[in-house]
């Protein structure tokens, strides 16, 4: 687990803010139990990757007068069932029933007394296991912005085991099969259960850590800081906190130079049943709008001041040498596919209307649409949101400082 975490850490250098804290939170993501179960279901490929890489030592057992050694044991097939997760305060329980694994092996069998009959061949070992576990989130010192799951308790129950050997003495293998299977079951319970469970946890952790520290915006060198500030589990939600500040990024050297100091504001609780819920603090848009001047020729001198959220969206003041205006932008969630079953959630600005204007007001609408056009080039974004559709999302006003976006995931 440590290796996985270190492998995923240290990709980007954040020059002005190498360490972040809860104070720096600008977006909070909450997953319900249903949402997390869907998330895990969509990421079972990680379990395949790590279970198929299990390093299994040779297995030697004795059955009567015969000694059997299984050599080059490796996974042939894997069937991952539905994994059910439940929240408890600070921990999550998971229940994985009927996990079926088929191993291939080469074997050697040797009679221990005269006439010392021996044979070798190939075979399969099929098992079905039931795994119960309880885990809690933690950060490690070498990787302070990536969460991993630490085991609180675990139990692996071997429900079924079947042995099939193919060789010259087939009649003997069929006769000895019950004794050999019983002996291998004892070895499996003594040595393999812990190895298998640890690989499952590594797979879960890799799914949690295999996301980008910086989410690159469309057609630009800007990116959203996706370092994880904090993760906690309540009886109702898995809660993750991010900064999501948008800055210019040197992707060649993986370096982020800039940072804007912000303070997380108190947020009233909003109760909804959406699988995944985003709570967005207005300051994150101030930082994103500071990047706008690079994308426009007509409004190079514009300065924005994010004012507050209202029920229809975000009120923003815009000032140029020609006008002073207040514009209303709506929050428009846009999912950009990064890879299969892994979308970036972009919280772009869509121009709604001009609320106030003094000066050359004919240009203000043009500015509004320019902001909308280029919003995805300095996008407030969260990585690894899985398969969702904007039509399954809803915007909810919280207060002057916060807006809430709730979405349903595809099963």
Automatic annotation (TrEMBL):
Lineage top rank: taxon: Eukaryota
A UniProt-annotated Pfam family: LBP_BPI_CETP
Source organism: Trepomonas sp. PC1
InterPro entries: Bactericidal_perm-incr_a/b_dom, Lipid-bd_serum_glycop_N
GO molecular function: lipid binding
Domain Lipid-binding serum glycoprotein N-terminal: 35-196
The protein's name: BPI-like protein
Signal peptide: none
């Amino acid at each position: 687990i440590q290796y996985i975490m270190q492998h995923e850490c240290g990709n980007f250098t954040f020059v002005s803010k190498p360490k972040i804290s809860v104070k720096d939170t600008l977006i909070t993501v909450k997953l319900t139990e249903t949402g997390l179960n869907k998330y895990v279901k969509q990421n079972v490929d990680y379990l395949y990757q790590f279970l198929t890489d299990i390093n299994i030592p040779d297995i030697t057992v004795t059955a009567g007068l015969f000694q059997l050694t299984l050599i080059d044991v490796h996974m042939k097939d894997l069937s991952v069932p539905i994994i059910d997760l439940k929240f408890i305060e600070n921990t999550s329980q998971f229940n994985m029933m009927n996990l079926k694994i088929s191993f291939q092996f080469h074997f050697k069998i040797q009679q221990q007394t005269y006439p010392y009959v021996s044979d070798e061949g190939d075979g399969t070992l099929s098992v079905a296991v039931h795994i119960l576990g309880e885990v809690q989130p933690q950060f490690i010192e070498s990787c302070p912005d990536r969460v991993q799951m630490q085991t609180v308790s675990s139990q692996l129950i071997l429900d079924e085991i079947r042995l099939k050997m193919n060789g010259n003495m087939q009649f003997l293998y069929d006769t000895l099969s019950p004794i050999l299977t019983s002996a291998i079951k004892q070895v499996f319970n003594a040595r393999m259960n812990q190895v298998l469970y640890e690989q499952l946890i590594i797979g879960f952790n890799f799914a949690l850590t295999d996301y980008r520290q910086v989410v690159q915006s469309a057609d630009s060198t800007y990116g959203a800081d996706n370092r994880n500030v904090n993760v906690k589990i309540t009886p109702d939600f898995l809660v993750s906190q991010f900064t999501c500040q948008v800055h210019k990024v040197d992707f060649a050297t993986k370096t982020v130079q800039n940072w804007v100091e912000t303070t997380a504001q108190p947020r009233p609780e909003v109760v909804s049943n959406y699988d995944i819920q985003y709570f967005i603090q207005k300051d994150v848009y101030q930082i994103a709008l500071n990047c706008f001047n690079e994308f426009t020729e007509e409004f190079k001198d514009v300065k924005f001041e994010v004012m507050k959220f209202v029920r229809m969206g975000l009120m923003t003041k815009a000032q140029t040498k020609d006008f002073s205006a207040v514009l209303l932008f709506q929050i428009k969630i846009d999912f950009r596919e990064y890879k299969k079953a892994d979308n970036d959630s972009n919280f772009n600005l869509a121009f709604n209307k001009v609320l106030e204007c003094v000066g050359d007001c004919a240009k203000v609408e043009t500015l509004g649409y320019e902001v909308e056009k280029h919003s995805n080039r300095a996008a407030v974004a969260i990585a690894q949101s899985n398969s969702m559709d904007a039509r399954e999302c809803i915007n909810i006003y919280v207060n002057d400082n916060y807006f809430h976006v709730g979405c349903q995931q595809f099963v």
